[in-house]
Every structure is written in C-alpha cells, then in structure tokens.
Hints:
The chain has 122 residues and is α+β, with helices and mostly antiparallel strands. Helix content is 34%, strand content 24%.
Amino acid sequence: xxxxxxIAQTQSEAYWKRDFKVRPEDIEAVYDLILEEGQPRTLGxxxxxxxxxxxxxxxxxxxxxxxxxxxxxxxxxVGQQLYFPHLGYLVGQVVGVRPGQNPRxxxxxxxxxxIEGQEGAG
Length: 122
C-alpha cells in the first residue's frame, strides 16, 4: 500500500489567502518579538514571523502519529489522529463516531475527539 502525505496547509497559497486568521497568540508573539529585540520591526518582518510561527505549529501538530488536518467534509475513524488549524493546531484522537442528520445538510458523521493535554467534560 502506498502512503500519500498531504502537503502542509501552511505551504499552500490558498491557506494564506482564504483560511488564515490572526489569532490572539499571534499578536502575543509579535509583542514578545518586539520586546525581546528592543527595537521596531517592519511590517514584512512581523508578517514573516507570524507565518513562520504558523508553519512551526503545523509541523509540530503533524508529527505525532501522522495527524491529518480536520476537514468537516471528510470521514474519520476511531483512533485516527487529527489536528485543528483553526484551534491553534490542537492535536487529538478520534474516540467515537456516530451518525448525524440535519435537514439542511443531510446525513453526516459526528466525531468525538480527545484533545491531547485536556481532560474530557465530566
């Protein structure tokens, strides 16, 4: 069986044009950079730092267990590792799958995910 590895989202132009959103952690990283360096930075330097940060976060998320990015239209199975770019690249494992139905969207699968480092809701 041949394994196909998807290109990292942060390595596609579409991600930066369509999906990228500045998060509070990005703003904090920019503040930290300015404070650590003690000097002003150009907009280009700040943008490159934020982009590099997103690339590092995605690379870290992709490493454990070959996690794949969560995409709502995809189907997942119990035990599969996912990461969530829109949630700061949180990594989790699918622990349950059940059928769902919505008059607007039709039938779909609902997944339960255990996020690394977080306890389940009691």
